Structures are given as C-alpha cells and as structure tokens.
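Hey there, shall we discuss this one?
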Amino acid sequence: MSDYKMLINGKAVAADETFPVLNPATEDVIAYAPKATQAHLDSAVAAARAAFPAWSATSSDERKAIIHKIADRIEENMGELADLLTQEQGKPMEGFAGLGAGFEMGGCLAWIRATAELETAVDVIQDNDEARIEVHRKPLGVVGSITPWNYPLLILFWHIIPGLRTGNTVVAKPSEYTPLTVLRAMHLISDLLPPGVLNVVTGFGEIGAAMSAHPDINKIVFTGSTPTGKRIMESAAGNLKRLTLELGGNDAAIVLPDTDVAAAAGKIFATAMINNGQTCAALKRLYVHEDIYDEMCEALAGIANSVTTGPASENPDFGPVQNKMQFDKVCALSEDARAHGATFLTGGAPTADKGYFFPVTIVRDIEEETRLVQEEPFGPILPVLKFSDVEEALARANASSAGLGGSVWSGDIEKAQELASRLECGTAWVNNHAMIQPDAPFGGVKQSGIGVEFGSYGLEEYTSIQTMQIAKG
C-alpha cells in the first residue's frame, strides 16, 4: 500500500495514527491515511497565515499563470488520479453516459482553467471634482476547505482554486472516506506554490469542527449535509468567519402534460442518477402529470432495466454507493417506501453480499409523506409522483426545507420558464437538471446553504470589500 502523508508548509507530514480507507466495491482496505491532531491543524493554519502576506501581494497575472500550471500538472497525471478515484470512491472509469471518474477529472481541468481566467475588478462609483470613490476586492486571509466524498477531487478544486486566485492561502480537509486522491493530487502540485500557501490535513469530524472554530481561519467553504453546515455556522461565530455552505438538496422536477416523454425520459434518468444519485443537485423528486404518468414510469423503468451496476473491473454503468452509512440510508428509505405501499418498478434491494451495491431503483405510486420523498436519499433511487393540478405540484415541490435546484419540463418553453421562476431554489432548469458550469453561479436557498460558487459571483465570496475615498478638494 502507498504511504500517504499530509501536506503542511510544503512538506510531507506523517501522523502517529492512521485510519483505513476502503474500496466500497469490495469493502477491502486499499490504504491508510494519516489521522491529523489539533497540533497538525495548528501547524497548517500557522503556515498558511505566514504565507499569506507574500502570496496576497503577488500579481493577478502571476497567480493566474500558476493556476494554469496546476491544471497542466493534473492533466499530466489524470490516468493515475482517475484510477485512484475509482478505487476509493467507487465510480466506474467511464460509467453511464460517460459520467464516471474520467468525467470528474475532466471537470477538474475545466473548472481550474476557467477560474484562472476570472478577475476581480475595481469598481469606480464616483469620480468628480470632489472625490474619487473606488471599491476594491481584497483577499480574506486563510480559507478552510471541508469537502465531501461524492466528488472528492472536483469539489476540492471548486473550493481551493478561487481561494488561491484571489490571493488567499488554504487549509483543506477532504472527507475521511475519500482522502487519497486529494492527498496525491495536492502533493503533485505542491512545488508549483510557495510553502504554506496550500496545506492538507486528513482526519475525521473533529478536525473539521476544529477548523470551523479556529481563530486564525478567516473563511470556511463547506460542501455537505445541512446538519453539519449548521454546526459549522455555530462554530464560525467565534471570530465571525465568512462562510460558503453548499448543503443538501432534495431537488424537485415538474413534468407538464405536453412533455415529449420519449425525448425527456433519458435526460430525466441521467440527471437523477448522475454519480449513482450521489450528487447534491441531482433530480430527487419527480412530479409527473397524470396524463403522461404511466408512460413516463414505463420509460424510466425501461432505461433502469437496461443499465448495469457492479465493480469498476466489470466496466458497469454504475458502481456502489460510496460508504456503508449512505448505503444503509438508501436501504432504509427503500424499505420504508415498500412498507407504505409504494410500487417498485425496478431494483429496491441490495444486489451483493459484499460491497455497497444498490441497483437503480424507480418507485411509483408513492405518497408525499413517505420518507423517500421527504428526505434526500443521495443514492440510485427515484420516486415518481403523480399530480393533476400544476399549482398543486408547485406547492408540493416548494414544501421542502431544501432549496438547491429544481426544474420544469414542457414543450412550451415560455410556460415552463414562468413556472420555473416560481420554484424556491437557487438554480432552476428548463428541460434539464443538475447541469452546472464554471461561469454560472451555483448555490442554495432555505436550508440548502449560504452563498454561491463559480463564476465572478463565486470568486467574490473569497474577498472582502474595501471602499477607498480619495478627496480632491
């Protein structure tokens, strides 16, 4: 097994204790990762704080050039990183519609390079005989990044690249379920940055909690569950940390009766099952008008019956659920739906004695109050609900405390757009779902988070405003 170490102040750092990292397809240990202590975290934060003055003073063009070099280095090592990602995360190399480990690696390159090109401009709001007033964007200081296990490397770059681009230094903590690809990638690029600018510590929730409360971390960027996001928000109050929290979603889609089922079913399936359903903005509740309900259920079941679930070695469409905790939740939600009379068109039960394999599952005739509808499953299971009145469907879609994404499907674009504008969510799609890009802001409302990522809006979240007034009289 490879020897994985943390990255602190430009050096590889071991820990006295380690923890096992499992392959979710086999439940076998593939490596051991270092278990950070408070002392490790303090060293990483101190290194980042010491590196901040010089790094923040570098020019925008210099930082841009370094970030492009980071993308080049990742691209040079894509094969190795994708293979490691498959082992620890479970997603196939290609996967359904090409959305596997290779897709995540390609996303890393796209986001790094697009973010490198972003700029924070000086806004001039007054320039007359009395005064010139400028609004400047300044880096915050040390940014703490806490990332999840569903897209280990992609979400890490979503966090750290805008931080580096704006002149901040970073301390990152990947999920304890998937730390290996992150550690390997960060060591691959470490020589491109001055020591202390980028640091990585690995461990469990207590390290994340310590980051949230740390007095010398100026901002936390977190992607994960709403309960954890709330705890981070409480801990961050100690020094009024800035926060970007991308939290859980339970995205609803409304399919109007004029929808071409044959044309829409494939896109609906793909956006519900992207990354085996383990995507924050995946389509998770599907409301279909009664006129086309049976046809849509049949079409989705047909696609589900045509795909394969298995270990990466078999080149399947879908791999395992990433960890036992999430696997157990998907199983429990499935069992609860069955107990409450829902009809299972496909799947519905684990398929292997070893590994966290749960087949793609389509559920119909399910009540609104069922746990599978009310809770985010974060797995390969989709409830399909019937409606007769559009206003009723909108009310049901908006009843959730989550508000990450939502969509409307229809042959009438104007009508769909009007309805989509009434969805209570951070991103609304028309005739699509879960599609994001590096130049368009993405974030949630209600209990799906605070702040946005991506594009100029996301870049500004890593800065503070300084208004400069220059008197002329």
User: Anything to note?
Assistant: The longest strand covers residues 131-139. The chain has two domains: 6-247+447-471, 252-437. The chain has a mean pLDDT of 97. The chain is about 40% helix and 20% strand.
